[in-house]
Amino acid sequence: MNDSVDSPSQPLVITPMSRRFRGYLPVVVDVETGGFDWNKHALLEIAVVPIEMDDFGQLYPGVTASAHVVPAPGTLIDPKSLEVTGIVLDHPFRFAKPEREALDHVFAPVRAAVKKYGCQRAILVGHNAHFDLNFLNATVARCGHKRNPFHPFSVFDTVTLAGIAYGQTVLARAVQAAGFDWNAADAHSAVYDTEQTARLFCKIANAWPAPPVGAAP
Hints:
Elements: H1 17-20, E1 24-33, E2 43-53, E3 59-61, E4 65-68, H2 79-85, H3 99-116, E5 121-126, H4 129-143, E6 150-157, H5 158-166, H6 171-177, H7 190-206
Parallel strand pairs: 1-5, 5-6
Antiparallel strand pairs: 1-2, 2-3, 2-4
Helix pairs in contact: 5-7
């Protein structure tokens, strides 16, 4: 006779987003630009994807917000960069916004997500993330925007994460190593690259144990 008694199942304890990354909300960002120098080259596209968390503590990409950007007066555009991105500046359906309006458009859902999860601020996630952050910070400074939700210098870089997780540092190869499809024809679009980077980040982060609920913030 088995006298053992099954213990009641323990409730699933989820580390909330506000503690998952020490009060920061990961937000994936990609920019397309007129060159490599954030001090002089124009911002041409920006896309953001706030990272969400489900009832089981799994991360997943949120809704994408994006904007085409009117090159700011005084900024430069290297024609070679347009060859890479395929951006046609005078395309009739580009519907580009001035820098400040573009920032307002993408910052609004980021601030809403930060508030939703009780986080302190957003932290930029990107592939070669400091490139995106430097252009973002330069644009914020240029138009005097006072409500930037992002940490001014800290980032999560998927180059590093993918290098550790899959031994791949190129975005296309890292995405494929993570088990996702990659369409080269859509690459170098801010929206496509952001959404693929978000999938990659979530796949890697979900494979890593979350810190205990009682861990210090």
